[in-house]
Amino acid sequence: MRNAFNKFDKEPEKFMNNPTTIFTVDTTVNAPVEKVWKLWTTPADIMQWNAPYDNWHCPSAEADLKEGGSFSFRMETKDGSVGFDHSGTYSRIIPQELIEYTVSDGRTSSIKFTADGNKTTVAETFVPETETPLEIQKDFTQSVLNNFKKYAEGK
What we know:
Largest sheet: 7 strands, antiparallel
Distance between the termini: 26 Å
CATH class: Alpha Beta
Number of strands: 7
Structural class: alpha+beta
CATH architecture: 2-Layer Sandwich
Strand order of the largest sheet: 1-7-6-5-4-3-2
């Protein structure tokens, strides 16, 4: 599994747009990687967990999980006052190990799944956008991962 990230470890500038501003957030889910992968990649499940806080939700999700396939997730507050579409193209898929993608604005991201028996660590590495403060983006993404953990462990 480590080999999947060797290019990132050795040459981050080729993997991410701005190697000086790369964040990684992670969580460990008490579930086997097969289950974690399925819940992470199935649109019906994505709509259940892809929100950072109780007052947010994911009213739509589409994912053509293959290299060159596209995805689109809508995230918004339940009252509709704030929201955004997160869409892009998958660039590399290693089932139950790695998802790399480029979002519509050109930033890159990766999600690494590390199996350890009945536990799976999900680590998301991303280039932040420039309009929102970095700590807010990091907290938002960590909160989504925490929500995923809660969903996966309760499923």
